[in-house]
Specification:
Length: 118
């Protein structure tokens, strides 16, 4: 894939029997090349919730196959897959763990006088 193009629409098959659909391009970070997948937002449909647009980067070892398709096809598959940027289970667990940090730990994270990154 050319670094100068704006990407192409594709269905990306990942190891672990996962799929994602969106606009794919190449992105380099820290000298390492990644496949960038920009997933569009989807409106709620029936009992399926709406999803927000997001971007994911994948290393070459994570990708099993890539099928290049037109935009309507990629969006149709993406609408069916309803991939979320963060797994619902992970988010629920993170929210449950938040009170365990305690007020002092939370205060330390947001202390504007602290030069350390949180």
């Amino acid at each position: 894939m050319n670094n100068q193009d704006n990407g192409q629409w594709a269905i990306v098959e990942l190891f672990g029997h996962q799929r994602i659909a969106g606009r794919v391009s190449e992105q380099t970070i820290g000298g390492c090349a990644f496949v960038r997948v920009d997933v569009p937002a989807f409106e709620a449909a029936g009992n399926q919730p709406s999803t927000q647009a997001f971007t994911k980067l994948y290393g070459q070892g994570a990708i099993y196959a890539m099928s290049f398709v037109d935009e309507p096809t990629a969006k149709m598959v993406g609408r069916q897959l309803r991939v979320q940027p963060i797994d619902t289970y992970e988010l629920r667990r993170a929210l449950q763990d938040l009170p365990a940090l305690g007020a002092s730990a939370q205060g330390d994270m947001y202390d504007s006088d602290d030069d350390r990154p949180f």
